[in-house]
Amino acid sequence: MKTWHLDLTHSLRSLLKNPGYAGIAILLFALGIGANTAIFSVADAVLLRPLPYADPDRLVVTLHDRNAPVSPADYHDYQKSVQAFEKMGAAQMWGATLTADDRREQIPGLQVTASLMDLLGVPPMLGRTFSEENEHEGHSHVLLLSHGLWKSRFGADPGIVGRTVVLDRISYTVTGVMPASFRFAPFWATRAQMWAPLDLDKRVGDRDGRSLRVFARLKPGVNVKQAQAEMDAVAAHLAEQYPQTNAKLGISVIPLHEKVVTAVRPTLLVLLGTVGFVLLIACATVGNLMLARSVGRRKEMALRLAVGAQRSDLVRLTLVEALVLAFLGAAGGILLGSWAIDLLAAMLPPGSVPRQAELGFDRTALLFGAAVSIASAMLAGILPSIQAMRANLNSDLKDGGRGTSQGSRRMRSQSALVAAEVALSLLLLAGAGLMMRTMVALSQVDGGFDPHHLLTMQISVSGTDYDQPGKRENLFRQVRDHLAALPEVEAVSAVNHLPIGGDMWRLGYRIEGRPAPPPGENWGAVYRVMMPGYLGTMRIHLIEGRDFTEFDNRTSMAVAIINETLAKRHWPGESAIGKVIHYGISAEDQKAPRTIVGVVRDVRQGDWIAPLDNEIYVPYLQNPDSMGLSYLTFALRTRTMTATADAAAAERIVREVRTFAKSLPISEVARMDRIIADELWRQRLAAILMGAFALVALLLAAAGIYGVISHSMRQRAQEIGIRMALGARTGDVIGLALWEGMKPVLSGMTLGLLGALMLTRFLATLLYGVEAHDTTAFAGAVVLLITVCAAANLIPAVRATRVDPVIALRQD
């Protein structure tokens, strides 16, 4: 320990004497360790930590094909027939207007079975959860609050249990408050702040209304494969018994943790790999700095050997110096990583990452940072340590030992490190190029509407005096007309759910005069209910026919507008205008014929890059009561020209709406271009971070090359002086230096290209409109890297030609 203490003291004194070298090395370690610690913290919170429920490894979620929810009747059959589960529970999306202190606010929530709260195994902080009795009419108006809602709307009142709160003008009794750490569900309806009992009594035989997400806990000793086999058997039996609704309807049993992380795992793994490469480049650069510094310490090392030191002592001294640099860098890296996590959290749209609220620095991150520091020190110090072991007592004690084999080995080591930096830099540049090309391709996707200068907001009448037949329609008309009169507004209309940012209902339809599809292949289309002027406000192109008008109301013929995909599917090569379709949310609507009066361009729906789907628009004014809509989403096209002006106009418009409709809950206020950007957050985040890290890697590689060539030119100053004294031209000397400097660059680029061809395929899930081996991205990375490396070589080469041959020849 005394020896290690002496080495530590000596290293600190030595570094203080060389603040420039120490500062650069510490900064490099701080960048690499900080970036790795930050991304690891995110990956740990999202991918590695077990879910915060009791015995989470036994929790599963069951979904029909294409992530489709389950109907109430199917849920009851699975619950009765499958023996692999200890307990099953179900949930469906829900929301209500909370009225408290004369303030109304739309609160997202879930309706859940009592068994669901039991199988999660998380006791409430206050009160109790639900009982089975609460699932039946007359007993279901009870409520469980999230910790956040309890604090924000009820002042963290410890006596909240037993109090009555008003939701949609209905009184609910609060039974409990969940702890701050509780969030459900972690992959769907992530913003839920309250939970109420799910009453399925009136839907017990419903096999069409698939609205339930079903969760289950496996029995001890039962695995997912066994549960899947049982579910498959029950699903097959239901398909035989109910072919109209269940034919060809598969069911999947998925571990809950797997379902939570599947979508985000590729992005986080790519980012982990990226910051890992940055750390390796930082270690290679620090190793090069240590090798360059060891030239000036040859005599010191030789003297240590001469007075009795062992070669292992020299290795230890070198590694202790690397450890000191790494731990000092880690201290700065932890601060940098903490700031980076806050920056990442600000870049992520709310609810985009599972368990987003748990992101932060903790003890695990600190331990990871310490482990990375030690590993970085070992990586950076390994080649300098090998050089220290090979110290030559005789030649290193002489002044003119520059041309020894020791110097040649050092140069080869430095060149190897440069080649490694270049290879890793090319990997990052190729990946960044692919992501940049992806973002360009995504920006060129035709969404079917113009998202610019488009403000959206949801206005609800739920829980107000307007939530009655007839009153809803009149109020929404008044809101629309008032908004249209604002000077900032160019056009305004409303729809049930917006594309991309809104919910997406898919209902079955049939075409009059044509046979119904075979069982298991029911036709379905996205359901849109819109007020007149919606197509013009969104700038959705009408291909043929007409738009809805104020005359498409309760007394007129039932009409519909369809999209191009549906028209081509059923009426290829002919006009769909005048054809009759049966479609709607209620049984009465589905029986009533609707005449198609228009065909519009396809619009991107729930996913910006998903395949286009059938879509049917129906007029809100024609039958607003049967639609059952207590809210509409308003779209307002502003007269502004810039994003800054859009934001200012949005604030003024929202203030005006709140003034005009004080009693109405207003939510989901957002600009459409922001909604689309949030939808593409994975690609955008990967492009930004990979681009930034690739730039850092490029600069580090250039700095490493510059350092090696500068050192080489200083070592060969006498040789260059002799060459120039004998008549060598400046261009010859520069060419010699460039060739020497570019040799490790070319070697590194060869390795980098091979690595990129193998590793960029892991980006496939993030790419759009570009192949993983895109020639343009690879060529751009190669050209950029060659240009920067050549410039880094050229500067010291030109400087070497300016050495006075007389001065150079006088050197020993």
Could you characterize what this model shows?
- This protein is α+β, with helices and mostly antiparallel strands and about 800 residues long.
- The protein is built from 26 helices and 22 strands.
- It is elongated, with a radius of gyration of 34 Å.
Quick synopsis:
With 812 residues, the protein is an alpha+beta fold. It contains 26 helices and 22 strands. 51% of the residues lie in helices and 16% in strands.
Give the mean pLDDT: 83
For the CA atoms, what is the radius of gyration?
34 Å
Query: In this structure, how is the largest beta sheet organized?
Result: 8 strands, mixed
The secondary structure category is: alpha+beta
Basic shape: elongated
Strand content: 15-25%
Q: Quick one: how many beta strands?
A: 22
SSE map:
Blueprint: H1 2-17, H2 19-48, E1 59-64, H3 72-81, E2 85-100, E3 103-112, H4 114-120, E4 126-127, E5 142-145, H5 147-154, E6 164-167, E7 170-177, E8 194-197, E9 213-218, H6 224-241, H7 243-246, E10 251-255, H8 256-261, H9 265-296, H10 298-306, H11 311-347, H12 363-389, H13 393-396, H14 405-443, E11 454-460, H15 471-484, E12 489-495, E13 506-508, E14 510-511, E15 524-530, H16 534-538, E16 542-545, E17 559-563, H17 564-570, E18 580-582, H18 587-591, E19 593-600, E20 615-619, H19 624-627, E21 631-638, H20 643-660, E22 666-671, H21 672-679, H22 681-715, H23 717-725, H24 730-759, H25 775-801, H26 805-810
Parallel strand pairs: 3-8, 5-7, 15-20, 17-19
Antiparallel strand pairs: 1-9, 1-10, 2-3, 2-6, 2-9, 4-7, 5-8, 6-7, 11-21, 11-22, 12-21, 13-15, 14-18, 16-19, 17-20, 18-19
Helix pairs in contact: 1-11, 2-9, 2-11, 2-12, 3-6, 9-12, 9-14, 9-22, 11-12, 14-22, 14-24, 14-25, 22-24, 22-25, 24-25
